[in-house]
Design a protein that fits this description.
Elements lengths: L1 H15 L20 H12 L7 H9 L20 E4 L2 E3 L2 H10 L7 E5 L5 H7 L4 E6 L2 H13 L5 E5 L12 E6 L8 H5 L1 E11 L6 E8 L5 E9 L9
Parallel strand pairs: 3-4, 3-6, 4-5, 6-7
Antiparallel strand pairs: 1-2, 7-8, 8-9
Helix pairs in contact: 2-3
The structure holds S-adenosyl-L-homocysteine.
Length: 244
Amino acid sequence: MYTLIRSEVLWLLLALLPWPPRFCGPAGEQAPPDPYTAAREQMVAEQIASRDIKDPRVLAAMRQVPRHLFVPADERASAYEDRPLPIGYGQTISQPYIVALMTELAKPKPTDRALEIGTGSGYQAAILSKLVAEVHSIEIVEPLADEARTRLATLGFANVVCRTGDGYNGWLEKAPFDLILVTAAPDHVPPALVAQLRPGGRLVIPVGPVFSVQELLVIEKDASGRTRTEQITPVRFVPLRRKD
Ligand code: SAH
């Protein structure tokens, strides 16, 4: 009799166990597999590593950040193609290679504080977020700034702060910065951005005529505050607008 009860209790306990057995905690907590992992690997291999981007941290960031979640839903299938894509309001998310090139030219270090002008989709800010301590980003189109802020927070890029406004004057309260990336093109170098660069810091910026070809420049500030400018390559960016 006693044995019979014991076996009934055993069966009851077995019936209460979850099936199929969960060995790693509740199934709902596991992140779904990312269907774009292979596309991202291919993007890095064919468009970036093959074009001489060598910094392993930059390559790793480009492999990790889900670019397809930074483009409008109807552009998602094209997210890993070798070109810029429209993100609304007449603006674009840059070609993956240009994002990688500008990031590598900025020589990001884990302790750096970065400033980006032109948040757009938030993709460049997300790449920087993996490589530096803090990212500050300014976007002039309010709905784009709001969308990017929400997107970056939802995806867990917690070290990015976004602000709506004209980035021509930089972000004085948060200066100086170890690196500044400008992802819209002015026709001259904004003096405030050079001023807000820390000695030893780098400003990566496309400069040239509106809606034409600009030159990508790296402006480096040495320990004594002197700057040296290097021309990298011709590029084509949307214009840096001014608040009127
Ligand atoms: N870095 C973005 C792409 C930039 S597109 C990304 O990763 O998606 C350039 C962006 O610069 C646009 O969103 C445009 O609205 C913004 N912009 C243009 N002029 C600006 C200015 N004066 N200050 C801040 N943002 C500006």
